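Hi everyone,

Forwarding the result from last night's run.
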Amino acid sequence: MKSFGRRWKTAAAAAAWAIVGASAAFAQGAMTVRLADQPGAEVDYGAVWVAEGLGYYEKEGIRIDRKTYANGPAALLDMPSGSVDAVMAAIAPFMQFVARGGDLRMVMSLTKGNAALVGLKKYTSYKELDGKKVGTPGIGTIHDAILGYAEQTQGFKVQRVFGKITDISVMIDKGEVEAFIGWEPASALAIAQSDKIHYIQQMPPIKNAESLELAFSPKFLNEHPDVVVKFVRATLRGIDFIKTQPKEKVAELLARKMNDYPKAVPVVLNAMGSVDLTEPKIDMPSTRIILQTIAKQGKIPADLVKDVDGWVGKYVDYSYLEKAQASLK
């Protein structure tokens, strides 16, 4: 028996060293992708964080170096300098970035929806906020654009207050704003933290509203096209998991990414009602509306939206998505 015990310990030690060795080998051979996103956005980028939690990027030889910025426009400021390789942000800031001379390539869509209007429980519609102070996470964000669309189409005007997405509940509790339009799970977390607020409207007033995409710098695409295909393939596997598995399993993975498991699971489940994470191509009908809206707001020149499809098409490259999809068949 003693001999068996010694053999078992030896085998266990060998297995442990094998795992350490495999991890070390991965660490040495992995390609690091410096990926920009925003705080409190784990649900919005659910396909990516689910894929990471399931080890899909690791299997492709990729390590994500997450870099968090206040909002999409702030993240994009670091792309020209080479500080980030890829940015997850929304169609509005991406196109404002290229309108000002920036360059990038959107390789897939990540999220539709993602513009929850949260506010005091006495409000039940956008129009009731006429003349009220309403928070947005920044003038260049998709959320400010969606709010602008609601104003233009429903005939009201709010007083904008710009603030951090993570401070929603505090801003409302202090009376600084009556409502706030933002992303998930930050919005759902704000609701969980305050009994004063609820979703005034959880989905945006635009059908299948395009929100977030994954974009790489042209430099990274030129130098590492195979890595981009692998990254997209891993993300598609994350989308497939979201499509085929119970929401509770998805919520568990995202709550762990938030470092708040199991407490955050109900928050994530609530937040998942604000997004569609399963369509990897950009929705052009809603994109036309969004970009025409920000043109009316004076955020981009009006002549750029005369042919939205042609303009956006210059900065979209689905070849990586198509290769990744073909390899999964």
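The domain at 116-201 is CATH 3.40.190.10 (D-Maltodextrin-Binding Protein; domain 2).

Cheers,
N.
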